[in-house]
Structure formats: structure tokens, C-alpha cells
Amino acid sequence: MENIVNTFLKIVQIDSPSGKEELISKYLQAWLTKRKFIIKVDNVGNIYATNNKQGKPILFCAHMDTVQPGEGIKPVIKNGVIKSSGKTILGADNKAALAAILTAIETTKPEKNLELLFTVKEETGGGVEFFPFKWIKAKQGIIFDKSNPLGGIVLSSPHICNFHVSIQGKATHSGTPQNGINAFVPAFKALSKIKVGLLDKGKTTINIGVIKGGTGINTVPENIQVAGEIRSYEKILFRKHLEQIKNTFAIEVKKYQSQYEFYTDGYCAGYSFTQSDAFVKRIVSVYNHLQLPVKYFFRSGISDANVLNEHQIQTINLTDGAKYPHTKAEQIAVKDLESLSNVIVACIETF
Predict the structure, then answer these.
(1) Buried b vs exposed e over 170-209: b needs ≥16 C-beta within 10 Å?
(2) Which of 206, 228, 311, 350: CA 20 to 30 A from 263?
């Protein structure tokens, strides 16, 4: 499996921070063209490829981008573990999966019907959300975008969105507060009534992450901005909390005769699988065949699988064997990189 190590070392040295995936895209397109894949690139840079074979297709998806610091990566191998030089991330998220997919394709029988989706801006948003999903024929897909030991299966991911509130009052000198409207007061009153942290027995989290406003200690603030996020594994709870937050600000703003704007962005639909789902069972059979211990994750973060599932492509996120993603300590063992490719080979042959 020397090939997968060489491929991985090569592609992690191709800079591709979110929004700057041009070089890795050119590399992958050249690789796919050489192997006679039919390629399409959408308006934002996502790559779709198919070998156009007969039979039921299976989709493999991986993202091309990395977080920062992810430029000028210098990988090193020590005691069977691949790390960066310590000045950057390694880029195993998600280039371990990219390298494993490429290696698996070269290993398997050419008649298998494969579809590939290599996405941009997974780390920041603005990539797969804009993909023309009519291109994809597969009804099932697999991604490897959770940094944990191999054998892991993500069963659910939350509904999520960001919310933003801008409260407008009226500025005046602090010595004459009766002549102004302090925008901080309705903001504070509303925030004091919003529960944050872990809620609904672990099904929901709410966070207030940004509070900005004011121009000076002797000036009544005329504008306060608040931003946060909601995550919930149940759509009903997600909608309930979002509506409650909006209404709470509306009530306080009206009470203190100020104005406000409330809007959301970054919405991503959640999904849920069970251990008894046929697709999950087939993945378990692959792990059993390779003698990998199976571990289920009933709670997880957001990935491209969320958007794929939202578009009726049943997609499961699996672990990639890497450690410490998004840090300079990020690493992956050579044996895990090799095993990851074996998992993909077994999936191609099984599905």
C-alpha cells in the first residue's frame, strides 16, 4: 500500500484552504481524466465524476478544502505516524479520505459503477449546498469525515442555523439618558431570558457567541448586535427554540420602544439513521469482514452528509482513523491510512 502513502503525502502538500481549492482541483481532474472518468465542475468548484459503468451506482464524497493554518504543509513520518512539521495542520481532514478513494479505485475491478463528489468550502459553508444534485444518479453515498478510530458510524447529525439580531435605539450623552433609547437594555433583558448550553436532555444546544455595540462609555449605545446558533437533533425542537428566541427579542424591543432586525443564515438540515437500517447493516458487514470494531456515534457535527441526505441521497458519515483535526497536532497512522483504503475497496465490492 505504498501508493496510498505517496498519494497522501503529495496531496497534503497541495495548498487548498477553504475558498482556494484550485490547485487540488486541477490535480484531481487530471487524475480522473487519465482514468477515463467523465467530469463535470459546477459553478462554485465542486467536482462530479463518474466512470459511467453499468449497474447500481455508489457515491463517494470527500471535501478538497482544509482549515488554516493549512498552507505550506510539510508532512513527516515518524514511528509509523504521519504528522505535519508542527507549523501547520496535516490536512488528513479530509485528504486521508481523498487519498484512500483514489487508491481504492486503482485497486478494485473497473466494471463497478462509481460516482465521486469532491467538494469545496466544506469547512466554511458555501460548497455542496450549491451543487446541481440532478447530476447524481446514486441513491446511497459514503463519506469519511469524522476523526476517530476506523469502524465508526455516525447515526445522526443536528439541524443547525445561525441567528442574528440587530437592535436599534437612539444615541445621546450619558448625562442625558432621557433623550435617548439605550439599545443594550432590551438586548440584555432578552438575553437574560434565553436558555443557553445543553437543553432538552442533550438533544439541543443554544449558544450566544457574539455581542457587539456601543461607541464610548459616556454615550448611550444606539445599536447592539447579537449572534448565536441553535443545534437540535429534533426538527420540532429546533423550530420551537428558534421561534422562542425571535419572539423574546420582539417582546423586549417593543417594551423599550426600540427597533430590531432578526434574520438567520447557515441553515443545514439534520438527519438520523438507526442500527437496524439496511444501509447501516451493510456497512457493519464490511467492518466485520475487515475485523474492525464497530462503534456508533449517536451525536455528531455537520458534514457534507447533511446536505446529501437533505437531497434524498442516503449518505452515512464514517470515521477516517485520523486524530486531532483542525490542530497542528493532527496525525494519522500509516496503517490506518492503508486500512481506510481497504474499507473503501470493500464498500465498492459490497454495494
Answers:
(1) bbbeeeeeeebbbbbbbbebbbeeeeeeeebeebbbbeee
(2) 311
CATH 3.30.70.360 placement within the chain? 159-268
Q: Which residues pair with 62 in a beta bridge?
A: 118
Give the N- to C-terminal CA distance of the chain in Å, as an integer: 23
In sequence order, which residues have a C-beta less than 8 Å from that of residue 232 and are 6 or more positions away?
158, 159, 200, 203, 204, 205, 238, 241, 270
66 forms bridges with which residues in the sheet? 17
Render pLDDT for 46-85 as a digit per residue (tens, 0 to 9). Answer: 999 999 999 999 999 999 999 999 999 999 999 999 999 9
Domain 159-268, what architecture? 2-Layer Sandwich (3.30)
- Residue range 212-219: average pLDDT? 97
Domain with CATH 3.40.630.10 in the chain: 2-156+270-350
**Whole-model pTM?**
0.90
Tell me the helix, strand and coil percentages in the chain, rounded to 5.
35, 30, 35
Q: Are residues 119 and 64 in contact, defined by beta-carbon separation less than 8 angstroms?
A: yes
Predicted pLDDT of residue 1: 57
> Which CATH entry fits the domain spanning 2-156+270-350: 3.40.630.10, 3.40.50.150, 3.30.460.20, 3.40.630.30?
3.40.630.10
Give the β-pairing of 259-268 and 159-168.
antiparallel
Residue 10 pLDDT greater than 80, yes or no: yes
**Cis preceding linkage at 293, omega within 30:** no
